[in-house]
Design goal:
2 domains, 5-stranded parallel sheet, Amidohydro-rel, alpha/beta, 18 helices, about 450 residues, Metal-dep_hydrolase_composite, MTA/SAH_deaminase, hydrolase activity, acting on carbon-nitrogen (but not peptide) bonds, Urease, subunit C, domain 1, 19 strands, 9-stranded mixed sheet, about 40% helix, single chain, Amidohydrolase-related domain-containing protein, TIM Barrel
């Protein structure tokens, strides 16, 4: 039995009762949280030689962050000035066509390492060479839902058959910490027949679906002109929507689209940084939530956000809604924190997202003294909780994350990912992209 105890900490549980403990203790056995309570453990527990003790003095314990729309990345900082379609044609597709198993493994190792270091404990990663991604997730210890980038053959990405092989070979690895879903690139690289096949495969395999929908105005216009329906309507007619589907972006939705998402229980990944950087607009977050749609948050590819840091994303995601609607009451920290944690868990069917007994032990510990990001803090628990929520969303970044526990395992301790040589991965990633950048020159195929 693996036992970990974090004591004398501020504990932001994000549970249904909105409990907060200061000072408090979290006890973990194997992959589950077994106790959460005020005060310190007894001497018998503190002197248990089999337990790993983490002193939580000046620390905050909270659920790990769930990146609900993620792409393993290789080309951060390359082609930043391009809008979506040109970016896909000139950077993204050439880069991922230049991959092989070894390059994909290195890219995933680097992407997952940097995600963990900024507080992410789960990624919903649509990319290529899923076996390599699974190997990287297994090595680092991150929780991962993986899928291929499925498109028509002429786009030289992945086929539905590739994704089915990925599912058979990798779904359920590491005691179900690694799962495989289907992935669908978008309707601009698909047709009605392929979408129907994806819907049928989803049902046949009993797995989920990660799909891009209605990201840009140009996409929606092209799809409507070609097929006479919006991307959301096509997904609905194809049997691709449902509680086991994550629809990424959903920026340009009709009222009917929103109702279809709500009616089917489809979750949406709100990706405000990517949508803003690529000039695609701002999602109708308030309307989606009012309709009852479960909305989580995602970075997208690092290329589209330039950072894996979901703390920065939470701040931007809140502020952009306030600015758009001229309403300072929107995007409250407690709501945004839940979007970045438990809403993502709900979307992916993961029994985590709150610090409470029985939940999966996916949590992070932040250093409240790091660069004064959490100063000032009051000692009164009620006021301390409110200030911490504010600091987490508006005042800190992922560099404050000191420890990360995933599936009950300490994956990062004292700011270092334990399973890997971080510096070696950094150097290898530089070398890999040198080769990819050279190969990209001959791999540009207009979409």
């Amino acid at each position: 039995m693996v036992r970990t105890i974090i004591y004398n900490a501020s504990i932001l549980t994000l549970d249904v009762a909105d409990s907060f403990y200061y000072p408090g203790t979290v006890e973990i056995e194997n992959d589950r949280i077994i106790k959460v309570y005020s005060g310190k453990p007894g001497d018998e527990t503190l002197n248990d030689p089999s337990a790993v003790l983490l002193d939580g003095t000046d620390k905050l314990v909270m659920p790990g962050l769930v990146d609900l729309h993620f792409h393993t990345s290789v080309a951060k900082g390359f082609g930043d000035e391009l809008p979506l379609k040109e970016y896909l044609e000139e950077v993204w597709y050439p880069a991922i066509r230049a991959l092989d198993k070894e390059r994909a493994f290195t890219a995933a190792m680097h992407s997952y390492c940097t995600a963990v270091k900024s507080g992410t404990t789960t990624v919903n990663d649509m990319y290529r060479f899923v076996g390599s991604l699974a190997d990287a997730a297994s090595k680092i210890g991150i929780r991962a839902v993986l899928s291929n980038e499925v498109a028509l053959p002429e786009y030289k990405l992945d086929l539905l058959e590739d994704n089915e092989v990925s599912f058979r070979e990798n779904n359920g690895r590491d005691l179900d910490r690694i799962r495989v879903w289907l992935g669908h690139e978008w309707m601009c690289t698909s047709d009605l027949e392929l979408m129907a096949q994806v819907g049928q495969a989803k049902k046949r395999l009993g797995t989920g679906l990660h799909i891009h929908l209605s990201e840009s105005e140009q996409e929606v216009q092209e799809v409507q002109a070609k097929f006479g329906m919006t991307p959301v309507e096509i997904a609905y007619e194809s049997g691709c929507l449902g509680p086991d589907t994550v629809a990424a972006h959903c920026v340009h939705l009709t009222d009917d689209d929103i109702q279809l998402l709500a009616k089917t229980g489809t979750s949406v990944s709100y990706n405000p940084g990517s949508n803003a950087k690529l000039g695609n607009g701002i999602a109708r977050l308030q309307d989606l939530q009012a309709a009852g749609v479960n909305v989580g948050m995602g970075i997208d590819a690092f290329e589209c956000e330039n950072s894996p840091d979901m703390f920065e994303l939470m701040k931007f995601g809140s502020l952009i809604q306030r600015g758009l609607h001229k309403d300072a009451s929107l995007g409250k920290p407690p709501q945004i924190l839940r979007m970045a944690t438990q809403n993502g868990c709900k979307a992916l069917g993961i029994d985590a997202g709150a610090i409470e007994p029985g939940k999966k032990a996916d949590l992070i510990v932040l250093d409240l003294t790091k660069n004064h990001m959490f100063t000032p803090l009051l000692k009164d628990p009620a006021r301390r909780k409110t200030m911490l929520e504010s600091h987490l969303v508006y005042g800190c970044n992922g560099s404050a994350v000191q420890h990360s526990i995933i599936d009950g395992n300490i994956v990062m301790k004292d700011f270092k990912v334990l399973a890997i040589d971080e510096e070696a991965i950094r150097k290898e990633m530089d070398t890999v992209f040198e080769g990819i950048a050279e190969d990209m020159k001959s791999l540009i195929t207009r979409v």
